[in-house]
Amino acid sequence: MSDFDRSELERSLSELHEFHDRWTLFKSKGMGSSLVAFRNAMALGQLAGDQQTAGLALSTVHTMKGLEKDIVFLVQMCEGVFPDYRAQSAAQIDEERNAMFVAVTRARRWLYITYPHSRKMPWGDVRSQKRSRFLDEIEH
Question: At 119, which helix (H) or strand (E)?
Answer without folding.
Answer: strand 118-120
